[in-house]
Fold:
Amino acid sequence: MSLIGETTGKPGGDIIKEGTDASFVADVVEASKVQPVIVDFWATWCGPCRQLGPALEKAVTAAKGAVKLVKVDIDKNPAFAGQLRVQSIPAVFAFVDGRPVDGFMGALPDSQVKQFVDRLAKQGAGAPGDGLDDLLTLARESLELGDLGGAAQAYAQVLQEDPANVKALGGLARVYLAGGDAERAREILEMAPADAKDPDLDSVRAALALADAAPSDTAEFEARLGANPDDHEARFELAKALAGQGRFEEAADNLLTIIERDRAWNDDAARKQLLTVFEAAGPMSDVAKQGRRRLSTVLFS
Structure:
């Protein structure tokens, strides 16, 4: 299953090796100043690790020496995994010029593993700056897939290199908010400049504002709507409560219902609240895109 035995001892056979905490500086940090080094943190009990390992080894072997792979069993060698804040395995880091510049968590399809290795091989040593963009892309993809741990780790890596990176701060705030930790999300927001413009920062700010203004319960308003579906005030308060809970799609649906039935109700309150919901959900979210289409249909019909 492993290709380690097949490569060791042949020309270029040191491109895949077992690493330890004792050898990490030499095998990874120093070696990456010559050529990119991939570190695979794994454990014998980890099923996804057994899936990812052979794919990584195959892709690195195919790169013909342009990239090295160091495999570290975290049960036997926990020190550097701890320093890199590895939260789950498999965890893969790419080192260039002595520092991590890219990475991912979890088992990926073979094709994506190959793309990761090929991208690193083309990058080569001495160009670590480009890795931050790749890491931000990885973090975004992880967040969209619901891999909050992977997204948090990738954003944290960017912030280690660039503590003022607005995209990483916004993304990490979204991760904490999605994980239900609103207070930590607020702390991350406070680290960003007050005038910083970023969709994720704006999204989290809007979501927190909605949560702060939200009624604590929906039961009263649902009961009122059950008795009178045209009780716009009850529907509006229900939408506020839903938005405060992060249930943006349901909140948008109720606000759009008010607009459809009385578009100017309460000095356009439903439309104004709807735009805040779109911002909280994210301008490219399905909630915003579908909601805007429905809003346009109502306003221009």
In short: The chain has three domains: 1-127, 139-205, 219-299. The first strand starts at residue 16 and ends at 19.
